[in-house]
Design brief:
This protein is 31% helix and 24% strand. The protein is an alpha/beta fold and 272 residues long. The protein has a single domain, classed as Rossmann fold. A five-stranded mixed beta barrel has the order 5-8-7-6-9. Helix 2 packs across helix 5 and helix 3 packs across helix 6.
Length: 272
């Protein structure tokens, strides 16, 4: 069961390491870890040293929090996130969001790698998430003592901050970066979808599919943290021309697109 004492111990450990009042929290998705090289005067804390933190078990998620300055703002960056498919529950997956909030963040940036359900979007494109569909079969707010941490019933009519979305669209236009917009659907995984499942997701109104982000966004809304989220589209989910999945290719496409995502996030930080 999640307790305030656990969060306080995690936060105290990080403060003692020098994590001093970060303004922005950033979650980096699969193949999207290079932003940490942009951080000035970094301080690292490995997940396995932070009290009550889960451990990242996916080989391409490195598993550390990094604190420092980016475009003159204090940031704390999750290099490696947690997923339900690793065997964690919703509370584990979202624990770092609560810790970053206790450290002091006022905004949350999220990135992920996703598959393009909307076939007018191509691999290597980026998509600004405007809304989402939760198909993970649970909620990170569905626990007995949730009222100790905020309202039990959280409004989700506008889960992604309209002001930051508008700003990042303007930045993309100025920088001549293609930025799609759409609905992200989150599934459990780790298996990829069948042809029939891709057809179903399209009918539901999804533009992209992935295995993360939605629990983090729900908790951020619980904490009243404004969020902006961008998906890097790493494969095309065409049920009529579906090819066997190539994880290495997905990671390679995420890495190729990452510099554009970093540019968007850095320019957005400048405006805050």
């Amino acid at each position: 069961m999640l307790t305030q004492k656990q969060l306080e111990e995690s936060t105290t450990y990080l403060k003692n390491r020098g994590f001093d009042s970060p303004e922005i929290g950033i979650v980096l998705g699969t193949g999207l870890g290079k932003m940490v090289h942009e951080i000035k005067d970094p301080i690292e804390a490995h997940y396995n040293h932070i009290p009550f933190f889960p451990l990242a078990t996916v080989e391409f998620h490195s598993g550390k929090l990094i604190y420092g300055k980016l475009e003159g703002k204090k940031v704390v960056v999750m290099q490696g996130r947690f997923h339900l498919y690793e065997g964690y529950d919703h509370t584990d997956v979202t624990y770092p969001i609560r810790v970053m909030h206790m450290l002091g963040i006022q905004k949350l940036f999220i990135s992920n790698a996703a598959g393009a359900i909307n076939l007018s979007y191509k691999k290597g494109d980026m998509m600004l998430i405007e809304d989402h569909i939760n198909l993970q079969g649970g909620s990170p707010l569905a626990f007995k003592n949730v009222a100790e941490f905020g309202d039990r019933f959280v409004d989700m009519s506008e889960p992604y901050d309209p002001e930051m979305r508008k700003r990042i669209e303007e930045i993309a236009e100025q920088e001549q970066i293609t930025l799609r917009k759409g609905v992200y659907v989150s599934v459990v995984g780790p298996q990829l979808e069948t042809k029939a499942e891709y057809r179903m997701l399209k009918v539901l109104g999804a533009d992209a599919v992935g295995m993360s982000t939605v629990p983090e966004v729900i908790v951020a809304n619980h904490l009243r943290l404004p969020i902006v989220a961008v998906s890097v589209l790493t494969d095309e989910c065409d049920p009529d021309n579906l090819e066997p999945i190539n994880i290495q290719e997905i990671i390679a496409i995420a890495e190729q697109t990452e510099p554009k995502m970093i540019k968007l996030f850095k320019e957005l930080i400048k405006t805050l």
